[in-house]
Amino acid sequence: MKHLSLALLCLAFSFGAHAQTTEKALERNRAFSGATATQAAYHAIYQLDTNNPKIIEKAIRNINNALTDPRLAGKVTLELVAFSGGTDAFLKGSPYEAALKALVEKGVIVAQCNNTLKERKLSREQLYDFIAIVPSGNGELIIRQAQGWSVIKP
Q1: Dihedral, CA atoms, 92, 95, 113, 50, nearest 10 degrees?
Q2: Which domain holds residue 11?
Q3: In terms of domains, do 7 and 75 share one?
Q4: Local structure of 109: helix, strand or coil
Q5: Residue in 68, 69, 47, 74 with CA at minimum distance from that of residue 58
Q6: What Gene3D superfamilies does its record include (predicted)?
Q7: What is the pLDDT of residue 119?
Q8: Which of 78, 88, 142, 147 has the fewest CB atoms within 10 Å, i.e. the most exposed one?
Q9: How far apart (Å, rounded) are the C-alpha atoms in residues 96 and 68?
C-alpha cells in the first residue's frame, strides 16, 4: 500500500509539473509574434502553373500579403512566373489584368515562360503588354533558387 501511495504521489506531481510546463509553452506560443527580419534583403519567386482561379487568386493574395508584411518593408524582391496553365492569367481578357498590373506597379516582376508560349502557339501580343518573358519558367525557378530565392508554390 505504501508503494502504491508513493506511486500515486509521484504521478500526481508529474501531472502538476506537466501542467505547468504546458501552460508555460502555451504562454510562450501566445507571445510569439513571428520571425525577426534581420537580413538586409529577401527574395521570393512564386510559381503559377495552373489556370485554377482559386490558385491564381491565392498567388496574387500571397504576394500582396508579403508586400504588406511590416517586417519585409523595403527589404523584399518578388517575382511571379507563369507557365503551363498559369499562362491563362496573363492572357488579354483574363479577369486578372488589374491585379497583375497593380503587382508590377508595386515592383513585383511578373514573367511568362516563353516555352509555354511556343508549345501553345501563343504570341506575345496575346499577353498583357506589361508581362515580361523568360526563356523557361522552370529555368527561372532553378536559377532563382540557386541565387538563394525562396520558391513558393501557392
Answers
A1: -140
A2: 1-32
A3: no
A4: strand
A5: 47
A6: DsrEFH-like (3.40.1260.10)
A7: 98
A8: 147
A9: 20
